[in-house]
């Protein structure tokens, strides 16, 4: 033991670093005894904490001692300088981010705070759909339909219906859409039938369409006051909806026995007749006719020629105006002007020229034919006059007379008269021979 102790003393005296190897003294049974074993003691780890003092030089701003004292960062030397518990601990702190969504906060100072009703748990929340009057609903439906008539985009119309029309008012939407279409052109009725077919299944259902038709059939006596052919139009809508598989065919069977009203039975009979025709389901796709711009050019030209021939026979300007509107091709009215001028050239009759001039003047006064369309029709004739004169030798003379008549009536401008073509003088002989020819003729 002595040798061991001496060796330990020597080690202590000779060792420079006293913290590497030290004797271990143990007290056992009240006596001090020195163990011959030695143990290595670890150095305490030095943690480098970045304090605001060390950043003073870098930032140029020094916090006061009080701010260091009240700092809520970890002080045990092992943290990263972040707030304790992620900001959730301590008094007067904001708490853990997002914790405001998890806790039920009740403000006693809130005017709507009611401690009795909020704490007993007997509150039941339900979605309340406000009641909409018929006038308010019509104000919402009409802009949607008018915009759809302009652009023809069913997807845009579907989004508008979903955003503005409540789910339990979709049957009223179908009803109002059909009523609005009744006051418009056949092409708009065709677009309405297409809209109902496209919205069926995801915006409106079979029950909505069925209820809408039942309401329309019941309101037929009132609809006839404003729309005389409402029975025929409604029958076409019902037949078209059945052809598009929006409502079942049994709708007509169930509707026949519900009412004995004359208008009611007329509309149901119209739909039954259309569906009973041979290949009726296929033909019903054109129940409203083909839209103006979708018709072939030859068909439109033929209809305009028949319109002019009928007018020459009857001299009925109102009927001619109605037929022109029914074609629904305002961008193609220059063809009517062209056909009218060619008909006047081929007729070579003062009475027909006067009648056609009167018709064009009436169309110009009613703005059925715009000034641009009128001039375009005349210019087309001017361009084709060399070919027309091959069939009508007096075409230049007749055209000059007809244009002068129209100019006097006031619907042809000077722009047209200034571009009126004229046939050049045809030379048979030279000027020297012409003098000789005249002299020889006199003698």
From TrEMBL:
What is one GO biological process annotated to this record?
negative regulation of DNA-templated transcription
Sequence similarity: Belongs to the PDCD4 family.
Query: Does Hydrolase count among this protein's keywords?
Result: no
Q: Does the keyword Nucleus apply?
A: yes
The record, for InterPro entries, names:
ARM-type_fold, Initiation_fac_eIF4g_MI, PDCD4
Q: Which GO terms describe its cellular component?
A: cytosol; nucleus
Chief location bin: cytoplasm
Q: Where is the MI domain?
A: 136-257, 299-422
**Which residues fall in a compositionally biased region of kind Gly residues?**
78-90
User: Keywords in UniProt for this one?
Assistant: Cytoplasm, Nucleus, Repeat
Any idea what this protein is called?
A: Programmed cell death protein 4
- What is the native source organism of this protein? Ignelater luminosus (Cucubano)
**Where is region (Disordered) located?**
27-90
The subcellular localization recorded is: Cytoplasm
Q: Which top-rank group of organisms is this from?
A: Eukaryota
Composition skew (Basic residues), residue ranges? 41-50
